[in-house]
Amino acid sequence: MLKIKFEMKKFSIFTAIILFVNIAFAQNIDDIKKYVLLRQAKPAKEAVDKYLAIEKNAQKADGWYYKGFAYDLTSKDSGLSIADGSALKTESFNAIKKYFQLDPKGPLSLEENNSLLFDLYVGFSSDLGVKAYSQKNYDVAHENFKKAVEVHDFIYSKNLVGANNYKFAALDTTLILYTAISANDAKKKDDAAVFYKRLAEANIADTQYVDVYQFLADYYKGKKDSANFNGIIEKGKKLYPKNADYWTALEIEEATDGVAKPQIFDKYDALLVKHPDNYVLPFNYSVELYRYIYSDEMKTANTDVYKQKLPEILKKAIAIKSTPEANFLMANFLYNNSIDISEEARKLRGPKPADLKKKKDMESASTAQMNEAIPYAEKVVSLFADIQKPKGSEKVNYKQSLVILKNIYDVKKDAAKSASYDAKIKQAQ
Asked: Tell me: the pLDDT tens digits for 170-194?
């Protein structure tokens, strides 16, 4: 008899059950153990249900342990739906929790290296969760991944050890990530936030987890939760400094969301003080100023203050990063502003010396703005040559810069330069 027990230990994770045969138990518990050992799922489940239906038996820990095994075995039937398999595994897990409640030391589980609990963990996650997700059944996938997290946390909380002394880490980052992703795909933003938050609290800085902080930043922004938004933004900047522009862009969105112009410019001024070295901030500020200056609501308003402000802000952006977009915006603004000033000068027809002087000053200002536009337009042209695969917007900015340069040299009556840029315009068609 001892020899049989020893040999069976080498071949089955369930064999330790045999060691706990107790003649004090009713025959039913022996039957349950026999069915479990032989992997006869249906009779094992029927027997344990009958056994636990008796009140005095339900007070004994061992019955719940065997129920866990019986229900887990039953859940492995390939003919079951994911929902039915998940329901059976949930019953199994609940039974094991009841077993540990009645017998905190859990000798039956320990004797088996806690194999049932680890099997449930794999079943909920790698089997049911992954299967449901591959079928794009994201809601069901999320529920099974979440249940796997519960099993993991239960195992970890009790410091349980698996085969070969395997132990769980405090946080199963991959499983938590899958749980969050499946919740997000299932349109359960609040549930996704719960699991993304667990990862963020662990301060994970691996590049594959940057989406954790991006999701939470967007989530808190949508919730108008400024405290948590600012906290996750600061954490994102610290852990992922290479994504600084992204974090600042979100910060800009949060600070300016729903703020009307021109009040929005006060928000930008405050952000500039906070982030003096960030390119995105002054560039976006300049774009907002440009749109406001040339908006319908400002056609009859005095825009001088904003026209003076725009190049001042845009120069800060270019000083940080001289991009084609920033240089084109500057060239385009200065060129258009020179035309605006010239048009205003043309309207002055008074014969008085003061009128003539004002007209002359405005014409000089127009010329100065036009001349100032040249190096920015040329920068766009030179930077375009370095772009391997230019996007549509980059091609448009390049051609518009060529047009600006041609028009300026037309005004200057420099036929040679005008012709050279005209040729480049035709090549760019």
From this structure: 999 999 999 999 999 999 999 999 9
Query: 26 and 63 in contact (C-beta within 8 Å)?
Result: no
Domain assignments of the chain as residue spans, ordered by start: 1-107
Q: How many C-alpha atoms does 354 have within 13 Å on its Cβ side?
A: 0
**DSSP secondary structure, 89-105, as one string:** HHHHHHHHHHHHHH-TT
- Helix 324-347 vs helix 353-384: crossing angle, to nearest 10: 160
Q: What is the DSSP letter of 207?
A: G
**Phi and psi of 77, rounded to 5°?**
-60, 120
pLDDT digits (tens, 9 = 90+) for 99-152: 999 999 999 999 999 999 999 999 999 999 999 999 999 999 999 999 999 999
Whole-angstrom Cα distance, residue 205 to residue 361?
58
pLDDT at 7: 34
pLDDT-flagged residues of the chain (< 70):
1-27
DSSP category for residue 321: -
**How big is the CA angle at 358 (ends 356 and 360), to the nearest 5 degrees?**
70
Q: What is the pLDDT of residue 5?
A: 33
**DSSP conformation letters of 3-45:** HHHHHHHTT-TTGGGGGG--TTS-HHHHHHHHHHHTT-HHHHH
Cα distance from N-terminal residue to C-terminal residue, the chain: 91
Rounded Cα–Cα distance for residues 98 and 63 (Å): 10
Cα dist. 386→183, 280, 319, 341, 403 in Å? 43, 21, 19, 34, 20
Which pLDDT score, from 0 to 100, does residue 359 have?
Answer: 86
The helices-and-strands tally (H runs, E runs) of the chain is 22, 0
Map tokens 């994102």 to a residue.
Answer: 236
pLDDT of amino acid 384? 93
